[in-house]
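Feature request, filed as a ticket because there's no other form

It would be nice if the structure record came with a short human-readable summary line next to the tokens. Right now we just get the raw output. Example of a typical job, pasted below so the devs can see what we mean:
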Amino acid sequence: MQRRFSLSSIMLLDGLAITATVVALAGVVWSPKLTNAVARATGSVKPVEVSVDVRHLQVADSEALLEAIREEGAVSIVIRNQPAGRVGLMSVEDISRPLTQLLPNGTVLEAEDTSPARGLHARFRLKAEAETGPSGVVFGGTKLKIGSAVELEGRLYRVNGSVSGVTIP
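Raw output as currently delivered:
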């Protein structure tokens, strides 16, 4: 018994093949790597500087940690639980403030707070390439604005902080 294909079955197969091709092309067009390449070509990707403040970091030797971070020179960044890649580290500094006391005679006395409960306050200055537009800075497919929660990770640490500054030089 020989089976014959009808014209309607061939058109159905052709329709499925065309649909699969369109879906594959749409996936390629909307892929993040291609979108980033298009953004670079149009000039909307520019270098940006981002400041991230980390507060109350409990660490045994803060100076050794800061030096290790400086030597590494780059950090991995996660914005709103979305990995956004590795960025360059411009600087990291201790921004802990001294304790101040106003004396009755009007002078101000400052002293370093050495209590272990206070922890380290640090500011990371990062430099990266990000897409810029009318809605702000888009980094790794996520909008990055002052106050955004980020996670920074290096070889010896993983810390949570918030964006305290975004500059487009």
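Something like this underneath would help us a lot:
The CA atoms of residues 29 and 45 lie 18 Å apart.
The mean pLDDT is 83.
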